[in-house]
């Protein structure tokens, strides 16, 4: 399985502490496609992750996390003078919901280009996986997402698209226009009932 997407640093405050009151943060690595690669690798599957990371200690921390879980990271490029995407998590306690603040603008993955992609690996995979988050991050990644799915499908590779709609990244109309195109390339589409309703206007069982 070959995945394409961003990994970020997740910075969480201890349960019961609000973000404005924080003085400690728990650091972990998270990202929709990288999490899939980790889960598959831990189950004994061959999983590769294509992405870009900053050429600094934060990027190396994320890369080490993927490596420790057995993910093939040979196709991760490092980009000088870029940054790691971050997100801050405040755990909810009823009736207060969990709060997430993203800081990912112009992160390293938005500098990923077609020439960085190992197309031979993509076209020889059994399955490729991408989510709706990746094409929402930049116009360049949007074009790359389409090339990724189109080239895989043309090579007879199964294409998995997880809609994973994030309203903080784009509106429903823009998302629908882009994601419908990705779904046309897909062998398997994963989406929640909420995404089916909010993005595609689908309802019922």
Automatic annotation (TrEMBL):
Pfam families: PfkB. Residues 1-203 form the Carbohydrate kinase PfkB domain. Keywords: Kinase, Transferase. Gene3D superfamilies: 3.40.1190.20. One of its GO terms (molecular function) is kinase activity. The keyword Chaperone does not apply. SUPFAM superfamilies: Ribokinase-like. Belongs to the carbohydrate kinase PfkB family. This is Carbohydrate kinase PfkB domain-containing protein. It comes from marine metagenome.
